[in-house]
Amino acid sequence: MFADFLKRLAAPVPEPLPDDDARLALTALLVRVARSDGDYAEEERRMISRIAAERFGLSPFEAQKLQSEAEALEAEAPDTVRFTRSIKEAVPYEERLGVIEALWKVVLADGVRDDHENALMRLASNLLGVSDVDSGRARRRIEGG
Questions:
Q1: How many whole angstroms separate alpha carbon 126 and alpha carbon 107?
Q2: How much is the CA Rg of the chain, to the nearest whole Å?
Q3: In Å, how far from its chain's centre is CA 80?
Q4: To pair with 47 at 20 to 30 A between CA atoms, which of 62, 93, 106, 139?
Q5: Looking at the 3D structure of the chain, how many domains does it have?
Q6: Is residue 9 in some structural domain?
Q7: Taking Cα atoms as reference points, which of 143, 101, 107 lies closest to residue 35?
Q8: pLDDT of residue 69
Q9: Residues 87, 26: contact at Cβ < 8 Å?
Q10: Domain limits at 102?
């Protein structure tokens, strides 16, 4: 279903993604972080849908459709590097901080921080070019501290 999209992500020098594909890549990254601990909790699903609706100005129905597509893409995608590289190239640094905040919202949605989620957050932050310090600040903002 996503063969062309995955082929573009895997290209040695990928083209910048159109907005719709960038939305899909970001949402798939949110799904990947939610699934990284082996428990794709209902709280995480609701958070992803809410983030998609708010970030992209989507109706609840549209956000759910995007999330369903992202879940399918995430299941087919070979690695996290492709998502983050495409997002990094499509999104300015300040907005990538918003991506990190969105990822932290998903990680923290179920009230449990798992070692797999922490490792994926470190990897995603690094690949997005966001420093550990800025990622930590983003996490604290989401935690309310």
A1: 17
A2: 14
A3: 9
A4: 93
A5: 1
A6: no
A7: 107
A8: 94
A9: yes
A10: 18-143
Read off the pTM: 0.85
CATH number, domain of 35, equals 1.10.3680.10
Output the CA angle 65-68-70, nearest 5 degrees: 110
Has residue 3 been placed in a domain? no
pLDDT given at position 94: 84
Tokens 């919202």: give the residue. 105
Report DSSP letters for the chain, one per residue: --HHHHHHHHSSSPPPPPHHHHHHHHHHHHHHHHHTTS---HHHHHHHHHHHHHHHT--HHHHHHHHHHHHHHHHH---HHHHHHHHHHHS-HHHHHHHHHHHHHHHHHTS---HHHHHHHHHHHHHTT--HHHHHHHHHHHHT-
Label each residue of 49-78 as H, E or C. HHHHHHHHCCCHHHHHHHHHHHHHHHHHCC
Tokens describing residue 6: 């995955």
Q: Enumerate residue ranges in the chain where pLDDT < 50.
A: none
Domain-located, residue 6: no
Task: Flag whether 46 is in a domain.
Answer: yes
